[in-house]
Amino acid sequence: MREKNQLAIESYEGLLQGVVHLLERARTASARSVNAIMTSTYWEIGRRIVEYEQKGERRAAYGQAFLARLAADLAGRFGRGFSERNLGKMRLF
Fold it and tell me: From CA 68, how far away is CA 14, in angstroms rounded?
């Protein structure tokens, strides 16, 4: 009887380890996917900022202060992560 109990415990431990491994792999894959999507999104945000600044010209006009307004609007809607500084970094990206 003791052998059956030991096998059941080992079997359960194997089940648990397998499920834990699956969940850890899924979390890792999800994090990679989210990171890739956010990176491409930030790149596109930067591209659109540059396009807006330049208005079809090779260079942007000096002294436009729209980043502060955009930062405030985005932060109000989406929360942290859209400071003027971060938007400037996206623009350089």
Answer: 55
Chain position carrying tokens 């659109």: 48
CA 48 to chain centre: 18
d(CA 89, CA 60): 16
How far apart are alpha carbons 62 and 65 in whole angstroms?
Answer: 9
Query: Which tokens hold the place of 54?
Result: 């330049």
CA distance 74 to 67: 10
Per-residue pLDDT of 19-62, as tens digits, reads 999 999 999 999 999 999 999 999 999 999 999 988 867 666 66
Neighbours of 49 (CB within 10 A): 20
- Whole-prediction pTM value? 0.72
How far is it, in rounded angstroms, from Cα 7 to Cα 63? Answer: 74
